């Protein structure tokens, strides 16, 4: 977003959604005794002295702001503001004692931090900018030790870290001979926290903006965290992705931007900051979307009834055809509660049926219910709605399909594709190329990819780079996407150059894609560091990106094979 006025409006809107601006936030939040199974520890250090350390105007504002949002989400928060080392140690002892029975612990830190000696450290208010090796543990607080101390055994850990990760040393360890090759301090690195997830406000080597635009009362990261927390039923991986997209878009084109959050972790079961709602079919009609026509004044003559405005009228088929479903559904849920969408679907709205089918199939906004998902997609497809047809075809092929399911999926893809739905064209093109519906048909596949690419579908544009006669033009289209602030363009450029054995020409794109959370970009970047292709050989960086790639279930088998043994 290059227009400052749009950014100011965005931040103002986010603050309005949060209820209170941070300056007016009640100081009582985060002071009550901890109760329940979900607790949060919020640490903010702002008042660094500006002589030894740059002050961070919004760090304390941020934790006050997120405190109320986490409290509304059903967590018991505890706040620690501008604490020195002794005060931090006492606060951790107190929190650990109260959180003994917690099943999940959220830790949010806003302040300065660094890595040294294979561990990550946060900077208390009285810490010096230079120290000796023997004094590191006395002056700074190990984040790994913090997690171990306050998180009960077996509890889920969720760690938010809002700190710069630039390459300039935050702390100088004076008795380390860096010139001789001994490692000094470095940007915050990977944290090993067991079952849980880590969400960094910015990527390695990048700053975390304390405010954007200038004068904002909270950081862009805190603003997005709160904004998306208002949407119930986002599984944590979807939540991270949507927050990251918000921050990237809000800071794109800014000085020192764009800021690009990223996450990693390992967890077995779906985890929600705000639980999905349960919408029984019997109750759905009671939550019908309101009409926009006002009631006539008393005594007025009643004319013909005005039809209710369609609340989903702003979602075009073209948007459905190119936008990622998690992003689109989150946008819809931010404006319409899940119960209202389901009511609209029960009333026969084909787009609402499509959205409800997606939501119930993956547990987004509502509790997962595959039979109900299938029913809504069947209803949408029966009305000839192209997005419903495409999503039903995908569902059929992804769930142990019978021969009849495969034939029906082909018919659905074909109908949706013939209606001009570019996502269906891309899916059908892929299936034709890999022989899902019979012998591989590359000629037809390329034609379908070309039709989808003409409508702007990024995956189809990438696919056309495999064909010699369309490669150059579509590499340029991917570059235009990337230059326009869409990291999906960078990701596909990384994949395309890797396939063409010209990865060294796209290392920067691989970095953007990797930081945006694309599994393929992470694997390709890890392999580049392992082999020194376009970057110096760096075993530590290779292991870093390989771990992050392996943490993503969507990583393809060939890409898992590519990084096998790297960092393991």
Can you walk through the features of this model?
This protein has helices at 4-18, 59-72, 85-98, 136-139, 143-150, 220-229, 236-251, 281-284, 317-322, 325-335, 338-346, 350-362, 370-382, 386-397, 403-418, 422-434, 442-454, 458-463, 471-483, 487-499, 507-515, 519-531, 539-550, 557-562; strands at 38-44, 76-81, 104-110, 113-116, 119-122, 130-131, 141-142, 156-162, 172-173, 196-200, 262-266. It has 568 residues and is α/β, with parallel strands linked by helices. A six-stranded mixed beta sheet has the order 2-1-3-8-10-11, sandwiched between helices. Strands 4-5-7 form a three-stranded antiparallel beta sheet. Strand 4 (113-116) and strand 5 (119-122) form a beta hairpin. Helix 11 packs across helix 12 (350-362), helix 15 packs across helix 16 (422-434) and helix 16 (422-434) runs antiparallel to helix 17. The chain is globular, with a radius of gyration of 25 Å.
Please summarize what this structure is.
The chain has helices at residues 4-18, 59-72, 85-98, 136-139, 143-150, 220-229, 236-251, 281-284, 317-322, 325-335, 338-346, 350-362, 370-382, 386-397, 403-418, 422-434, 442-454, 458-463, 471-483, 487-499, 507-515, 519-531, 539-550, 557-562; strands at residues 38-44, 76-81, 104-110, 113-116, 119-122, 130-131, 141-142, 156-162, 172-173, 196-200, 262-266.
């Amino acid at each position: 977003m290059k227009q400052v006025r749009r950014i100011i409006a965005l931040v103002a809107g986010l603050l309005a959604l949060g209820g209170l601006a941070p300056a007016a936030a009640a100081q009582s939040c985060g002071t009550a005794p901890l109760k329940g199974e979900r607790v949060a520890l919020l640490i903010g250090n702002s008042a660094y002295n500006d002589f030894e350390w740059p002050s961070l105007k919004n760090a304390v504002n941020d934790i006050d702001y997120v405190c109320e949002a986490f409290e509304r989400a059903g967590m018991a928060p505890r706040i620690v503001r501008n604490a020195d080392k002794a005060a931090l140690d006492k606060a951790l002892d107190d929190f650990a004692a109260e959180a003994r029975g917690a099943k999940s612990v959220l830790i949010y830190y806003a302040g300065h931090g660094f890595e040294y000696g294979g561990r990550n450290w946060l900077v208390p208010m009285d810490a010096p900018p230079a120290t000796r090796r023997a004094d590191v543990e006395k002056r700074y607080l190990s984040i790994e030790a913090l997690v171990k101390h306050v998180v009960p055994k077996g509890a889920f850990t969720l760690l938010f870290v809002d700190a710069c990760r630039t390459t300039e040393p935050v702390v100088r360890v004076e008795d380390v001979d860096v010139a001789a090759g001994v490692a000094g301090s470095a940007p915050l690195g990977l944290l090993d926290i067991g079952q849980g997830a880590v969400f960094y406000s910015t990527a390695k080597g990048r700053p975390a903006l304390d405010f954007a635009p200038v004068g904002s009362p909270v950081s862009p990261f805190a603003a997005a965290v709160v904004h998306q927390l208002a949407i119930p039923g986002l599984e944590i991986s979807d939540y991270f992705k949507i927050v990251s997209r918000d921050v990237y878009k809000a800071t794109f084109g800014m000085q020192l931007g764009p800021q690009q959050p990223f996450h990693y972790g390992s967890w077995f079961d779906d985890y929600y900051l705000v639980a999905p709602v349960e919408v029984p079919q019997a109750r759905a009609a009671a939550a019908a979307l309101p009409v926009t026509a006002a009631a006539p004044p008393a005594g007025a003559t009643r004319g013909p009834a005005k039809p209710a405005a369609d609340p989903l009228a702003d979602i075009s088929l073209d948007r459905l055809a190119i936008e990622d479903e998690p992003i689109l559904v989150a946008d819809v849920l931010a404006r319409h509660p899940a119960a209202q969408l389901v009511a609209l679907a029960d009333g026969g709205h084909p787009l609402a049926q499509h959205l409800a089918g997606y939501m119930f199939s993956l547990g987004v906004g509502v509790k997962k219910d595959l039979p109900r998902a299938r029913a809504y997609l069947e209803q949408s497809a029966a009305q000839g709605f192209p997005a419903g047809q495409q999503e039903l075809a995908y569902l059929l092929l992804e769930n142990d399909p019978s021969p009849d399911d495969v034939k029906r999926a082909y018919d659905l893809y074909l109908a949706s594709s013939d209606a001009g739905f570019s996502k269906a064209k891309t899916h059908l093109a892929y299936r034709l190329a890999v022989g899902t519906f019979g012998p591989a048909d590359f000629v037809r596949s390329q034609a379908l990819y070309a039709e989808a690419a003409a409508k702007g579908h990024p995956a189809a544009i990438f696919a056309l780079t495999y064909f010699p006669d369309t490669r150059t033009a579509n590499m340029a289209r991917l570059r235009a996407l990337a230059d326009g602030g869409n990291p999906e363009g960078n990701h596909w450029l990384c994949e395309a150059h890797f396939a063409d054995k010209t990865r060294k020409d796209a290392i920067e794109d691989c970095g953007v894609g990797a930081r945006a959370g694309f599994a393929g970009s992470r694997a390709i970047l890890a392999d580049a560091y392992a082999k020194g292709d376009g970057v110096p050989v760096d075993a530590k960086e290779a292991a870093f990106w390989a771990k992050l790639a392996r943490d993503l279930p969507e990583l393809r088998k060939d890409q898992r094979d590519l990084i096998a043994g790297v960092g393991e």
